[in-house]
Design a protein that fits this description.
This protein is mostly helical. It contains 3 helices and no strands. The longest helix has 42 residues.
């Protein structure tokens, strides 16, 4: 029984090693893709926040000018 098991293991010629290697590579690819997605999401979020901040930055002169333009249009 033990000899039969040893013969089977010797006849495999690295198929278990190949299976483990392929599985590790698959997990590594999944982890890399997840990391790339997270980095892309963070950079897009940062860009969006900067754009929103730039849109809300207004000086008092701009506010006064806009107020007078709107006031003139409505009167």
């Amino acid at each position: 029984m033990k000899r039969d098991l040893r013969n089977r293991i010797k006849e495999e010629n690295g198929s278990v090693t190949l299976f483990v290697l392929v599985t590790c590579m698959f997990v590594l690819v999944i982890l890399l893709l997840t990391n790339m997605e997270m980095v892309n999401k963070n950079s897009n979020q940062k860009r969006t926040l900067e754009q929103i901040q730039n849109n809300y930055e207004v000086t008092e002169e701009d506010l006064e000018r806009t107020y007078h333009e709107v006031y003139k249009e409505n009167t």
